[in-house]
Amino acid sequence: TPAVTSAVGASAAATASSDFLVVFCGPHFGDGFAFTREAAANLVDEEVHMRVEQLPTQVIAGNEAVLARAHVLVPFMTPVDAAMLDAAPLVRLVIQFGVGLEGVDVHECTRRGVHVSNIPAESTGNAASCAEHAVYLALALARKQRAMDESVARGLLGSPTGLALFGRTALIYGCGALGEQVARRLAAFDMRVLAVRRSRWGCKGRREGGEAGGGGADALPAGVSEGGSPEELGAFAARADLVVLTCTQNESTRRLVDDAFLAKLKPGALLINIARGGLVDYTAVSSALDSGTLGGFGTDVFDTEPFPLPLSDAPHAALLRHPRVVATPHVAGVTDASYRTMARVVVREVKRV
């Protein structure tokens, strides 16, 4: 069985070494590296000495010397597979600076006795930070950010006319820690919030008269008016003015947003993805934007990360230039609160290796 643990309240097996090299695999998400190095420098422990380095690229070639000395890998977007583990024979822990482990070959790590861990979003402020970013994207689309920029550049006042969120309906697909945080914030805008998740809902999936749901693990979370199953996604989508994707990417959700899904939405609905890039069929989204079926698309994640340069060569480059698209560079969870907390978690877990 693959060995994946949560970094909160979990530990890896002990090793004889007390001199650790923690390697961040690539140049992206720079403050994760900087905050972890700062936390390691502030470590007061005579028995543990910790160094933190960052690879300038995401490939093995040219980084062999550092990888050969590494005890801990922080992958971010870099794949940790058999080849990477061959290049880093001293590694005993792979810890993700966040939740996603899609790029880590957990089976291979387990076979080699390498522990794999992530950092749950709800315990670090990461979920709250991502939820705030979902609200930012919702407002940017509803108030037509790109058209506002154009009006400012032209000196034109009173244009464009934005879309009010209050009184409208939002659909959250994936109501775990992140989805619950998004629901609370959208409800504060006086939106009716529908949510879909795989696990069972309590209270028959309905919150009567706006009252709080009953107790128990399956009760509706705060802010959610109605809860449904994936089988009800189409019916819920037909009622939604705003759809926010917060679900896990797996075989059942890959390309979830396709032509058929988009056809079920209200005309002019807004779509936001702060989960994983593979949830969306970008060709279908482009067509829906061009036809007016989709009113706007806000995304913080992409199916190809990082983008190849020049940007004009990136997949779906035309989509990124669309006037009703707002794209951000995978920064939803990148805040001072979440990153400093996760940096401290990494240092604490390395001490426990």
Automatic annotation (TrEMBL):
* Domain (D-isomer specific 2-hydroxyacid dehydrogenase catalytic) ranges: 41-352
Coiled coil start-end: none
**Gene Ontology molecular function: any one:** NAD binding
The yes or no answer to whether the keyword Nucleotide-binding is present is: no
Mention any Pfam family matching this sequence.
2-Hacid_dh
User: Which InterPro entries does this one have?
Assistant: D-isomer_2_OHA_DH_cat_dom, D-isomer_DH_CS, D-isomer_DH_NAD-bd, NAD(P)-bd_dom_sf
- Listed name of the protein: D-isomer specific 2-hydroxyacid dehydrogenase NAD-binding domain-containing protein
- Similarity comment: family membership: Belongs to the D-isomer specific 2-hydroxyacid dehydrogenase family.
Going by the UniProt record, its keywords in alphabetical order are:
Oxidoreductase
Question: Where's the D-isomer specific 2-hydroxyacid dehydrogenase NAD-binding domain?
Answer: 136-200, 229-332
Per its UniProt record, what SUPFAM superfamilies does this chain match? Formate/glycerate dehydrogenase catalytic domain-like, NAD(P)-binding Rossmann-fold domains
Report whether rRNA-binding shows up as a keyword of the record.
no
